[in-house]
Amino acid sequence: MNFFEHQAQARRTSTRLVLLFGLAVLGIVLAVDLAVLIFAGAHPGLLTLATLGTLGVIALGSLYRISSLRGGGESVALQMGGVPVPENTQDLNLRRLRNVVEEIAIASGVPVPKLYVLEHEAAINAFAAGYSPSDAVVAVTRGALDRLNRDELQGVIAHEFSHILNGDMRLNIRLIGVLFGILMLAIIGRKILEGGRGGRSSKGVGAILVAALVAMLVGYIGLFFGRMIKASVSRSRERLADASAVQFTRQTSGLAGALKKIGGLHEGAKLNDRADAEEVSHLLFGDGVGFSGLFATHPPLLERIRALEPSFRADQLEGLTRRWAIEPPHGLDEDRSMGLARPLQPPPLPEIDSRHALTPPMVAAQVAHPGADDYRRADSIVATLPDALRALASQRDAVVPLLLALLLDEDAQIASRQHYEIAARLGPELADAARALRAQALADLHPMLRLPLASLAFPVLRLRPRPQLNAFMDAVQAAVNADGRVSLFEYCLARLLTVQVTESLDPSRHARFGRRKPQAVAAELATLLAVVAQSGHADAVSAQRAYLAGLQRILPQEHRPYAPPADGVLALDRVWEALDALDPLAKQLLVEAVTAAISHDNRVAVAEAELLRTICAVLHCPLPPMLAKA
Q1: Whole-angstrom Cα distance, residue 396 to residue 418?
Q2: What pLDDT digit, counting tens, does each position of 409-449 carry?
């Protein structure tokens, strides 16, 4: 199953979730009405009041919880007691975690997520939460940091990245909000009973306590439905995430080792006794609550291990348990004993003027599915990025001029105009810093390093207050529109930054699965393909052929002449919203169409491949560094 098929399945799952929620609400309402009939008799007015009151409580509970999660993944991490990981941490465990996450993010083509540690959890567990990659967080327990070696930690993080890439996070966080509503009656009833234990002599209080007891008992129907819904939605996606983690990390031993340590160590994966553990149980890497059978949100542990190592036996797990009871494993010590050096030297980055063969099916298959070559390419990118630039990307005061410097044009006149626009919005000092970085640190930066550098800088950027982020976005737009002679890559990079910042400021507002078909956005498709074709071909005849090759891929029945827009690349401002609302399977055709236009001459330059990655990222189709397999 590729990324687009998984997105389509996630959309269908969302629809199924709504239906299951409706059935759960119906069951609760019927139970309340039955209780009213038993205790008060058949009074139509009272039954109507009970029905409306029950629906109101459930609706208000869900709306309240959904509203409390509008902040996205960070809201969940903070609720769970997560502590942010500093960008410049010197803690070896945290440094190792950050390095692993950055490598996987670069290989996947998504922004580096914010990192949190659950410091008071000795169990081995982790979760990813958020509405989109732009607001994603990855949280790990202190037990995972202490007990897992690097390969095992990489397997766990790759598992969580699968949820980020495939849209599972969006469904998971909405599941928290929706299910809270059907648990409201049980919560209300329990709170009243706890608060009314001392006042049983009053007849009125007694009636209230009886009603509260009934509400709590009926609420357990909601609890039953909630656990069933979570289990039915979660188990299959956990199996897929395990399989994706193996694909991401190029080996099974890391993920299998993490699962063995969960099974063999006393702490396991179970979180401390806390009220919110069950609420987030479907987000976790391992079973953090202890449910089994119908209510299990994860496949059995042995089943997960055997899917990776078919010959593994239960008695082997028992042997590990006995051994680790005497001498528990320590991740950093295991790393030192195995050696930290990479077994393979990462390949060099391709020459800037080199050209490679890419095909539309190859590109579509790699969206959100990094493979072994992509990891080697990510290793090359990490190794090639100058230390000075990586340091700037982690500094709060340097990240804004660094990102703006990536947008400055090579043409001196255009860059001067951009400098003026930035200075007018953010001050001359910051504009001068951006120009200096462009002239010095970024002058010879390889095209394949621009997106990874922006990815590394993004977590620091979004730490800034909202007014500063709004001013930054204004400066980005002004820099892009300073002159009509903006390159397509600079325009797309600016658009990508704007999308990521906008989504991080208001995550829940921008989370959606598209439903539109290509025919409904034919004009926007034609505009995008015309701009891409014109940008990548020197003469009008070649550009027209490239445009028609792309159009044939997604709209074979349409006859739209090649007509490059008069305002050039700036015409793309009018297409992104419509194209991002495409159905997932239609987006696959869109990615193939853009690839067909770019690769019409059968040879793709490095800059063209990076342009393709940027367009895909703007449309929420994360693409790994493409030239590894080419």
Answers
A1: 22
A2: 888 888 999 999 999 999 999 999 999 999 988 888 888 88
- Sign of the CA dihedral 351, 353, 358, 364? positive
Q: What is the DSSP letter of 622?
A: -
Structural domains in the chain (count): 3
Please check whether residues 607 and 505 belong to one and the same domain.
no
Does the active-site annotation cover 558? no
Selecting among 103, 160, 279, 592, the annotated active-site residue is 160
Residue 4 tokens, joined = 């687009």
DSSP β-ladder status, 355-356 and 114-118: unpaired
Last residue of a domain, one of 461, 481, 510: 510
Q: Half-sphere exposure (CA, 13 Å, Cβ side) for 348?
A: 4
The answer to whether position 290 is within a domain reads: yes
Are the CB atoms for 396 and 463 separated by under 8 Å? yes
pTM for the model stands at 0.84
Pairing of strands 137-141, 114-118: parallel
At 173-225, the pLDDT tens digits run 888 887 888 778 777 777 777 666 555 555 566 667 777 777 777 777 777 87
Of 95, 153, 96, 93, the residue nearest 119 (C-alpha): 93
* Two tokens, residue 586: 């239609």
Cα–Cα dist 163/419, whole Å: 40
- 173: closest CA among 503, 511, 458, 462? 511
Q: Are 283 and 127 in contact (CB under 8 A)?
A: yes
